[in-house]
Design brief:
Layout: H1 3-9, H2 31-39, E1 41-43, E2 50-52, H3 53-62, H4 64-77, H5 106-116, E3 124-125, H6 127-130, E4 140-141, H7 144-151, H8 156-159, H9 168-182
Antiparallel strand pairs: 1-2, 3-4
Length: 183
Amino acid sequence: FCTPCLQECLKPKKPLCGVCRSSLGPGSRALDLEKQIEMTETTCNGCNKKMYLSKMRSHAAACSKYQNYIMEGVKAVTKEPLHNTRNFPNRFTFPCPYCSEKNFDQEGLVEHCKTLHSMDAKQVVCPICASMPWGDPNYRSANFMEHLQRRHRFSYDTFVVCDYDADEDDMMAQVLIRSLRDK
Protein backbone atom coordinates (compact mmCIF):
# COMPACT_ATOMS: atom_id res chain seq x y z
CA PHE A 1 0.00 0.00 0.00
CA CYS A 2 1.11 3.56 -0.60
CA THR A 3 1.36 5.83 2.44
CA PRO A 4 -1.93 7.75 1.91
CA CYS A 5 -3.93 4.51 1.54
CA LEU A 6 -2.23 2.93 4.53
CA GLN A 7 -2.84 6.06 6.62
CA GLU A 8 -6.52 5.96 5.61
CA CYS A 9 -6.71 2.39 6.95
CA LEU A 10 -4.97 3.39 10.19
CA LYS A 11 -7.17 6.35 11.11
CA PRO A 12 -7.21 6.62 14.92
CA LYS A 13 -10.99 6.23 15.18
CA LYS A 14 -11.07 2.88 13.36
CA PRO A 15 -7.87 1.24 12.08
CA LEU A 16 -8.80 -1.30 9.39
CA CYS A 17 -7.03 -3.89 7.28
CA GLY A 18 -6.57 -2.55 3.74
CA VAL A 19 -7.69 -5.87 2.24
CA CYS A 20 -10.61 -7.22 4.27
CA ARG A 21 -11.49 -4.10 6.28
CA SER A 22 -11.33 -6.02 9.59
CA SER A 23 -10.40 -4.01 12.66
CA LEU A 24 -6.72 -3.83 13.49
CA GLY A 25 -5.40 -3.86 17.00
CA PRO A 26 -2.14 -2.33 18.14
CA GLY A 27 0.71 -4.31 16.65
CA SER A 28 4.38 -4.29 15.96
CA ARG A 29 6.25 -3.71 12.75
CA ALA A 30 6.77 -6.71 10.49
CA LEU A 31 10.55 -6.61 10.73
CA ASP A 32 10.94 -9.93 8.91
CA LEU A 33 8.96 -8.56 5.97
CA GLU A 34 10.94 -5.30 5.99
CA LYS A 35 14.18 -7.30 5.92
CA GLN A 36 12.90 -9.44 3.04
CA ILE A 37 11.98 -6.30 1.05
CA GLU A 38 15.45 -4.86 1.74
CA MET A 39 17.19 -8.05 0.55
CA THR A 40 15.06 -9.12 -2.45
CA GLU A 41 16.34 -8.06 -5.85
CA THR A 42 14.08 -7.24 -8.77
CA THR A 43 14.42 -5.81 -12.26
CA CYS A 44 12.69 -2.70 -13.58
CA ASN A 45 10.32 -3.68 -16.41
CA GLY A 46 11.18 -0.45 -18.21
CA CYS A 47 14.95 -0.08 -18.16
CA ASN A 48 15.94 -3.57 -16.90
CA LYS A 49 18.03 -2.08 -14.09
CA LYS A 50 18.48 -4.41 -11.09
CA MET A 51 17.68 -3.07 -7.62
CA TYR A 52 16.25 -4.05 -4.26
CA LEU A 53 12.46 -4.00 -3.83
CA SER A 54 12.84 -1.27 -1.20
CA LYS A 55 14.15 1.09 -3.93
CA MET A 56 11.67 0.11 -6.65
CA ARG A 57 8.91 2.64 -5.84
CA SER A 58 11.21 5.66 -6.00
CA HIS A 59 12.91 4.28 -9.12
CA ALA A 60 9.57 3.67 -10.88
CA ALA A 61 8.48 7.24 -10.15
CA ALA A 62 11.60 8.60 -11.89
CA CYS A 63 12.08 6.01 -14.68
CA SER A 64 10.54 7.26 -17.94
CA LYS A 65 10.97 3.83 -19.55
CA TYR A 66 8.95 2.22 -16.73
CA GLN A 67 6.23 4.85 -17.09
CA ASN A 68 6.10 4.15 -20.85
CA TYR A 69 5.84 0.41 -20.07
CA ILE A 70 2.85 1.07 -17.80
CA MET A 71 1.17 3.30 -20.39
CA GLU A 72 1.58 0.60 -23.06
CA GLY A 73 -0.32 -1.78 -20.79
CA VAL A 74 -3.05 0.75 -20.14
CA LYS A 75 -3.46 1.39 -23.88
CA ALA A 76 -3.55 -2.36 -24.55
CA VAL A 77 -6.56 -2.96 -22.31
CA THR A 78 -8.42 0.30 -22.94
CA LYS A 79 -10.84 0.13 -25.84
CA GLU A 80 -11.54 3.82 -26.27
CA PRO A 81 -11.96 6.82 -23.97
CA LEU A 82 -15.42 7.59 -22.71
CA HIS A 83 -16.51 10.86 -24.28
CA ASN A 84 -20.11 10.87 -23.16
CA THR A 85 -20.00 10.77 -19.36
CA ARG A 86 -23.77 11.25 -19.05
CA ASN A 87 -24.29 7.58 -19.92
CA PHE A 88 -21.62 6.44 -17.47
CA PRO A 89 -23.19 4.87 -14.36
CA ASN A 90 -22.26 6.29 -10.97
CA ARG A 91 -20.22 3.64 -9.15
CA PHE A 92 -18.84 5.97 -6.48
CA THR A 93 -21.80 7.15 -4.41
CA PHE A 94 -24.92 5.26 -3.41
CA PRO A 95 -28.25 5.88 -1.69
CA CYS A 96 -29.29 3.90 1.36
CA PRO A 97 -31.92 1.37 0.19
CA TYR A 98 -33.73 1.65 3.53
CA CYS A 99 -34.03 5.39 4.17
CA SER A 100 -32.95 6.84 0.79
CA GLU A 101 -30.23 9.02 2.37
CA LYS A 102 -27.84 9.77 -0.49
CA ASN A 103 -24.16 10.15 -1.40
CA PHE A 104 -22.54 7.34 0.57
CA ASP A 105 -19.33 5.87 -0.71
CA GLN A 106 -19.19 2.08 -0.43
CA GLU A 107 -17.57 2.07 3.02
CA GLY A 108 -19.94 4.80 4.23
CA LEU A 109 -23.00 2.85 3.05
CA VAL A 110 -21.81 -0.29 4.88
CA GLU A 111 -21.19 1.72 8.10
CA HIS A 112 -24.52 3.57 7.81
CA CYS A 113 -26.51 0.37 7.34
CA LYS A 114 -24.67 -1.44 10.16
CA THR A 115 -25.34 1.48 12.50
CA LEU A 116 -28.92 2.40 11.62
CA HIS A 117 -30.49 -0.56 9.84
CA SER A 118 -28.88 -3.71 11.25
CA MET A 119 -32.24 -5.03 12.50
CA ASP A 120 -34.26 -4.10 9.39
CA ALA A 121 -35.40 -7.32 7.68
CA LYS A 122 -36.95 -5.59 4.66
CA GLN A 123 -35.72 -7.05 1.36
CA VAL A 124 -33.95 -4.34 -0.65
CA VAL A 125 -31.91 -3.95 -3.83
CA CYS A 126 -28.18 -3.48 -3.26
CA PRO A 127 -27.34 -0.13 -4.89
CA ILE A 128 -23.67 -1.09 -5.25
CA CYS A 129 -24.43 -4.30 -7.16
CA ALA A 130 -27.18 -2.63 -9.18
CA SER A 131 -24.62 -0.10 -10.51
CA MET A 132 -22.40 -2.85 -11.93
CA PRO A 133 -22.82 -4.15 -15.49
CA TRP A 134 -23.65 -7.61 -14.13
CA GLY A 135 -25.97 -6.24 -11.44
CA ASP A 136 -29.72 -6.74 -11.55
CA PRO A 137 -31.49 -3.52 -10.45
CA ASN A 138 -34.58 -5.58 -9.56
CA TYR A 139 -32.93 -8.28 -7.40
CA ARG A 140 -33.88 -7.95 -3.75
CA SER A 141 -31.43 -9.47 -1.30
CA ALA A 142 -33.02 -11.79 1.27
CA ASN A 143 -30.48 -10.67 3.89
CA PHE A 144 -29.04 -7.33 2.82
CA MET A 145 -26.88 -6.84 5.93
CA GLU A 146 -25.14 -10.20 5.42
CA HIS A 147 -24.76 -9.39 1.72
CA LEU A 148 -23.09 -6.06 2.55
CA GLN A 149 -20.68 -7.66 5.00
CA ARG A 150 -19.73 -10.52 2.67
CA ARG A 151 -19.70 -8.80 -0.73
CA HIS A 152 -18.76 -5.23 0.06
CA ARG A 153 -16.03 -5.45 2.68
CA PHE A 154 -13.76 -3.78 0.10
CA SER A 155 -14.18 -2.06 -3.23
CA TYR A 156 -13.36 -3.76 -6.53
CA ASP A 157 -11.44 -0.64 -7.51
CA THR A 158 -9.04 -1.20 -4.59
CA PHE A 159 -7.52 -4.20 -6.34
CA VAL A 160 -8.07 -3.77 -10.06
CA VAL A 161 -8.20 -1.04 -12.63
CA CYS A 162 -11.75 -1.60 -13.73
CA ASP A 163 -12.85 -1.25 -17.32
CA TYR A 164 -16.41 -2.41 -16.75
CA ASP A 165 -17.17 -2.32 -20.47
CA ALA A 166 -14.18 -4.41 -21.56
CA ASP A 167 -14.80 -7.90 -22.84
CA GLU A 168 -13.56 -10.51 -20.35
CA ASP A 169 -11.86 -12.61 -23.07
CA ASP A 170 -10.00 -9.55 -24.40
CA MET A 171 -8.85 -8.64 -20.90
CA MET A 172 -7.63 -12.20 -20.25
CA ALA A 173 -5.72 -12.23 -23.54
CA GLN A 174 -4.04 -8.93 -22.64
CA VAL A 175 -3.09 -10.23 -19.18
CA LEU A 176 -1.53 -13.35 -20.72
CA ILE A 177 0.40 -11.31 -23.28
CA ARG A 178 1.70 -8.97 -20.56
CA SER A 179 2.69 -11.85 -18.28
CA LEU A 180 4.70 -13.47 -21.09
CA ARG A 181 6.36 -10.15 -21.85
CA ASP A 182 7.25 -9.67 -18.14
CA LYS A 183 9.24 -12.94 -17.91
